[in-house]
Design a protein that fits this description.
The chain is mainly α. Helix content is 74%, strand content 4%. It is built from 5 helices and 2 strands. Helix 1 (5-32) packs antiparallel against helix 2, helix 1 (5-32) packs antiparallel against helix 5 and helix 2 packs parallel to helix 4 (119-137).
Length: 149
């Protein structure tokens, strides 16, 4: 399927945003152990100070990584997309190198869980990476607006 450069940018935005949101949800699950309805269930322990500190730490790291690292990466990917022909196959939204990086990150996540990392640690990593991806994804929306100005 052939798509325009602008569609490539929108696809990149949605993919980064969707994966980031998924990681935020999964990370919250690891951090809080599915206790979102704990107010209604007195048998489940309430999240404590440890979880609150872990969440603040994860969001802080994610904010820094999203603004200092992933925005630069998104700008680089946007510049690559802008060099594509006016229409090109949708799979060209990301380069092969990018897909290899994604596969590597997925493998690292699986390895982290399989070696028995505590849920709190996995949660912090997932929330930090998820928040960074969501923040970085916004960069894909900024590029087309700058072109139209």
């Amino acid at each position: 399927m052939q798509v325009t450069r602008e569609t490539h940018l929108r696809v990149a935005f949605f993919m980064w945003g969707l994966v980031g949101t998924g990681l935020l949800i999964a990370g919250s699950y690891f951090l809080f152990g599915a206790r979102s309805l704990s107010v209604l269930d007195g048998a489940k322990p309430k999240p404590g100070l440890t979880e609150a500190i872990a969440l603040i730490l994860a969001l802080g790291v994610g904010f820094i990584k999203g603004n200092l690292v992933l925005k630069k990466v998104a700008r680089k990917y946007s510049a690559r997309i802008e060099k594509l022909p006016e229409t090109s196959p949708i799979y060209m939204t990301f380069s092969p190198k990018s897909w290899i990086l994604v596969a590597g990150m997925m493998a690292l996540g699986r390895i982290t869980r399989s070696i028995g990392a505590p849920p709190l640690v996995v949660g912090v990593i997932y929330v930090a990476v998820g928040f960074a991806l969501v923040l970085g994804s916004l960069t894909y929306l900024e590029r087309p607006q700058a072109q139209h100005a």
